[in-house]
Amino acid sequence: MSRRNPMRDEIAIVGLGSTDFSRDSGGTSAAGLAAEACINAIRDSGIDKSEIDGVVGALEPGAPRANEMSTILGLKDITHHSSPMPVAVFGLVDAMTAIFSGQCDTVLLYFAFTRAPWNSRSAAKDPFRSYLGGMMGGGLKAPPMPESIDPSAAYTAWAARYIHEYDVPREDFGRVALNMRANAARNPKAAMKAPLTMEGYLQARMIRDPLCMLDMDIPVDGADAFILTTTEKAKKLTPNPVVVHAATAGMVGSNTEDQLPSLARHGQHVVVEALKDRSDVWTDDIDVFFPYDGFSIITLGWIENMGFAKPGGAGRFMQEHWDDDLGCVMIDGRVPMNPHGGSLSEGASRGTGHLREAVTQLRREAGDRQVHEASTALIGCGGFFFNSQGAVLKRL
Amino acid sequence: MSEVVDDAALVARFPWVQINHDSKHHFRGWLDKQLLINRCDDCSKFHHPPKPICPECWSSNLTPTAVSGSGTVHLAMHLHQGAPAPGVDYAKGAHPVVSVDLDDVPGVRFSSTVIDLPVEEVVIGLPVKLDWVERYGSPFPVFRKRATAGGES
Ligand SMILES: [Zn+2]
C-alpha cells in the first residue's frame, strides 16, 4: 500500500436485496424488479426508508432513473442522486464518495436488468420491450454493421488474440464456464443450473468463433440493490459490518476496442496497480475471489492480471487448483472463484451478483456455498476497455 | 472524381453509422473509395477513429490523409450470427471480421471483413490489402488477401 486511501474501511454495505434472475420475468417491468430489490435491501438493512438521502441507479437500458426510483419508493428528500455507467463498481464508488464527502449519509444503490428483444424469443414477443431496440441502437435508422467492433464483439476478437499469442486450447476458456456452472448449482437464485461437462462446452454452439454461447453471459431479467452508509452508523446496526477497504476503476487512455495497445496493457492492469496501492490485503490474504465473467476471456485476464498466474497461464492455474469433487476452482484448496455462479451461470448482472455474493459471504450467510470464516473478498469487475474496476471488501 | 454531397446527403448515404463533424471527412472518403485517416499537421501522428484534436499534441490542425490500407490482421473472429447486412448470410457460413494493423499508419488499426477467402483462412497474421464493395448503395471498405514477397497471390 503506497497511495492515499482516506475512504479505507469508512463505508459499509448494510443492506442487500435482489430478485431472482430469470430468463422470463413475465409481466414484471424493469422498474418493478428494481422496486422489489430496493424494498428487500431497505428491509434487510434495518434502516427506515426516511433515512435514505442518496439514490444511485445504474444507467442500464430500461432501468428506472434515480429520480423515478425515488418517486416509486416514496422516498423523502434526497441530497445526492446519480445514474452512473453500468458495471457494479462505478455505482459503488459513486455511492461511497457521496457518503464520504458528506453529500448524503445513506445511499440506496440499485441495478435492474431487462433482456432486450434480440436476447431471447420470449423477450422478442413482449411488445413492451420494443423501445429497447432504438435505445440500444443509438437511434440509428438502420442496424449497425456486422463489422462494428462493439465491446461484446471486441472480447471475442481479443480472445482470438489471446489464443494466438499464448497458444492455449479452448479448454482453458471451458474451465471458466465449468467453474461458474458448478457453483451456480449451489445458488438458488441462479438462472442456469444444469450440469456442464467439458465435452458439452466444446460442442456448444459457436456465436463468434472462437467464443461459443457458453463463453458469454446469460441475459436475464432481475435486479440487485444495496444500502450503504458510514461504518460508524453501520456499527450501531451490526457488530461485524462489511466495509469497502478499497475500490477503483481504471482504463488506459487509448481504450477504443480495436485500438487497444495489447493484452499486456489495458484497463485491468491499471485497476490492479491502483487497487494494490490502496489495499492492505492482496491475493494471498483473501478468502473468496470474484473475477468478472461477462465473457470467459475477461476471467482469464483477471486471474492473470491480479497475479495468480503468468500471462497465458490462467487455464493451467485453474487446472492446478481444480477441486474434482466440487467441479470448480478452489485456490490452494480454500478460495473459490465466483461461488454464486457468476454472470455466465447466475445471470448477466454486470458485476452486481459478484458484489452481492461478496457481501453475502462476508456476512457468512451463503448457506451451502459459504466459505469458512470468510473475512476478505477481492473483486475484479468489468473488462479490458473502459469499465475495468476492482474492490476489496472486508468483514470488520 | 470526388462525389460532392452536403452533410444531410452524407448522413443519408450511411444510415447505419453515426457520423459527426469529426468523422464526416472519413465517410466522405468512403464515397470516393479512399481510406482517410486523420494525420496531425503539427506532430505528424495518425489517429483513428477520427477525433476533434490530435491526442498526442492537442493540435486542431488535422488532415484526413489517404492511406493504402495494406496491412496485417491483428484481431480476427468468425461471426456465426450478428447484425444483418446485404451479402452477409450467416446460414451459408461464418462471416469474418478483422482488425488490421495498417502498414503506412503505425499504431492504427482499421476493422472490416475479408472477402473472397475461405473463412478458415482468415486468421491473425494474414497479409491483406484494401478493396471496396457496395453496401446499401454506398462504397464500403473491405480487405482481401495480399500476396507477399515470395508468397502466393
Ligand atoms: Zn499532433
Which labels suit this protein?
heterodimer; A: 396 residues; alpha+beta; Peroxisomal Thiolase, Chain A, domain 1; nine-stranded mixed sheet; three-stranded antiparallel sheet; 34% helix; B: 153 residues; mainly beta; OB fold (Dihydrolipoamide Acetyltransferase, E2P); five-stranded antiparallel sheet; 2 helices; globular; binds zinc ion
Q: In CATH terms, what is the architecture of the largest domain in chain B?
A: Beta Barrel
Relative strand content of chain A:
15-25%
**Whole-angstrom Rg of chain B:** 16 Å
* Broad shape of chain A: globular
Order of helices and strands of chain A: EHEHEHEHHHHHEEEHEHEHHEEEHHEE
Could you characterize what this model shows?
The complex is a heterodimer of chains A (396) and B (153). Chain A has helices at 30-45, 66-73, 88-100, 121-125, 131-136, 151-166, 171-184, 198-203, 231-237, 267-276, 296-305, 314-320, 342-346, 352-363, and strands spanning 11-18, 54-57, 80-82, 106-113, 206-209, 211-212, 222-230, 242-250, 288-291, 322-323, 328-331, 335-336, 376-381, 388-395. Chain A is α+β, with helices and mostly antiparallel strands and 396 residues long. Chain A has a domain at 11-116 and 220-229: Thiolase/Chalcone synthase (Peroxisomal Thiolase, Chain A, domain 1). The relative contact order of chain A is 0.18. Chain A starts with 10 loop residues before the first strand and ends with a strand. Chain A has a nine-stranded mixed β-sheet with strand order 3-2-4-7-1-8-14-13-9, with helices on both faces. In chain A, strands 10-11-12 form a three-stranded antiparallel β-sheet. Chain A has a two-stranded antiparallel sheet with strand order 5-6. The radius of gyration of chain A is 20 Å and the shape is globular. Chain A is built from 14 helices and 14 strands. Chain B has helices spanning 7-13, 24-31, and strands spanning 35-40, 46-47, 62-67, 71-79, 95-102, 109-112, 127-135, 138-145. In chain B, 10% of the residues lie in helices and 34% in strands. With 153 residues, chain B is mainly beta. The mean pLDDT of chain B is 93. In chain B, a hairpin with a 6-residue loop joins strand 5 and strand 6 (109-112). Chain B has two helices and eight strands. In chain B, the strands form two sheets. In chain B, strands 6-5-4-7-8 form a five-stranded antiparallel β-sheet, with no helix packed on it. Chain B has a three-stranded antiparallel β-sheet with strand order 2-1-3, covered by helices on one side. Chain B folds into two domains: 1-67, no CATH class; 68-147, Beta Barrel (OB fold (Dihydrolipoamide Acetyltransferase, E2P)). Chain B is globular. The chains are: A alpha+beta (396), B mainly beta (153). The A-B interface holds A 138, 140-149, 153, 156-161, 164, 205-211, 253-254, 256, 258-259 and B 15-18, 48-49, 55, 74-85, 88, 94-95, 97, 99, 108-109, 111-113, 123-125, 135-136. Bound molecules: zinc ion. Zinc ion binds next to loops of chain B.
